[in-house]
Amino acid sequence: MQLQLAELAAILEPLRTVFDELCKNIPRQRVSHILQVGNPADASYIMMPTYKIYNDTTSAELVGAEASIPQGTPINIRNAILKADMCDFALLVFLPHVAHVLEKIGARVDWLTLYMQPVLRLFRNGESLRERVLHSVFIITTSNANQFIADFTIEQFGYNSRHWITPKSEYLIEFSADGTFSIAADGHMDLVRLSANQCDFMAIFQHIADDVCSQFDWGTYCRHQLPDRLPWVRALVRNARRNIETA
């Protein structure tokens, strides 16, 4: 099981890196400040902190998502903001690419939905805090029927990114609200597509992802030393963005 987990992580890490790089560069309004809300006397104030995000209303300028977050923001909150509400887009855009690379090792991938148990919650000023969050992840079934969850946006719930790929049974125990799950219905996928079509940046997001993933050169990637591989992938994304912006 651990060998399979390591193999899947190695295969999917470049795709997750492409997704991460895109999330950092989505156009966003600047965040002016972030406040923890709730009663400090409540256990949940410490065990599951809730943060309210305030946009900078003095400027309409859009910047990259990473640059929009105030300096000094704790890394777990910063990562949660970058990945917030991006799980459906991750599945919509990357499911075909994940399926393509896994096909080579006889594995299958499906779109799974479940309710999460966060250790950190976020909401923006003017929005309501959602008590239950339906989350989308990749469920991978290997040729010998072992199953794993690949979660490209697990950070949005306050978890460390090292948990992005996990055996299914462990994932359901550690991160889901109640251990239940379902394969995403066609109606859910249609709603995600409709939402994406109404969002200007998502067309660019998808174009860059498709461009980088469809032309990805595994031979060149593997010839790089391990410390140089992910920076090489990030450079591919930056070049693809630059090509679109200057076209």
Describe the structure.
- Strand 7 and strand 8 form a beta hairpin.
- The protein has ten helices and ten strands.
- The chain has one domain.
- The N and C termini lie far apart (46 Å).
- The longest helix is centred in the N-terminal third of the chain and has 24 residues, at 2-25.
- The strands form three sheets. A five-stranded antiparallel β-sheet has the order 9-8-7-5-10. The protein has a three-stranded mixed β-sheet with strand order 2-3-6, with helices on one face. Strands 1-4 form a two-stranded antiparallel ribbon.
- The chain is α+β, with helices and mostly antiparallel strands and 247 residues long.
- Helix 1 (2-25) crosses helix 5 (87-103), helix 1 (2-25) packs parallel to helix 10 (226-246) and helix 8 packs across helix 10.
Going across the major beta sheet, what is the strand order? Answer: 9-8-7-5-10
What is the domain tally? Answer: 1
What's the number of helices? 10
Report low-confidence residues grouped into runs of 5 or more.
none
In round numbers, the mean pLDDT is 91
Give the radius of gyration: 18 Å
- Major β-sheet profile: 5 strands, antiparallel
Which percent range describes the beta-strand content? 15-25%
Element order: H for helix, E for strand? HEEHEEHHHEEEEEHEHHHH
Distance separating the two termini: 46 Å
Strand tally, please?
10
Q: How much helix is in the residues?
A: 40-55%
Class by helix and strand content?
Answer: alpha+beta
Shape: globular
